[in-house]
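Researcher: Next sequence.
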Amino acid sequence: MRFPIPAVLPAIAIALALAGCGGGSEPGDEPPEDFAITIEHTDGSVAPPAHAEWRLAVDETGQGILEYTPDYPGDGVPTFTAQFDADPGAIDDLYTALARRDLLRDLEPGADPPIGGATESATVTADGRTFEIPAFADGSAPLAPLERHIHRLAPRQVWDDFADRRETYAAERYDADS
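Model: Next structure:
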């Protein structure tokens, strides 16, 4: 069967136009203007000085702050703080990873989470909604596969500086006790 070309062209044009319609605001496209995230990390139950805790927050303008405690919190334990401009590419990549893993929704915390291991939880704001990502949900640690994306939010120099300061702190606090 042969179709006259003038009759087929409008149908092809309509089909191509409809194929390009993806909704524009599907999770994973790019972060909405109000995208913000705060991640809370606690190392597992390990002997000092192997334990650390940190909080990393990036607001909707891309301003970030990292607060890092190089030990179990307590008297005489410092908290290092750095403010920075988060890399826009890292923000985009993390948002895409969150969307692809279906984490931009309310998740129920696991009923029987494991004890003793490292934990990461997050509060995410996107499209006017706030979501809590618990340390454990649906039988797994939902943020664990995104560790590389999370760490890229803060400049490498900040992480390296905190690692150096942690080493100095541990040497002064624990090596001096020996």
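Model: The chain is about 30% helix and 20% strand. The longest helix spans residues 156-175.
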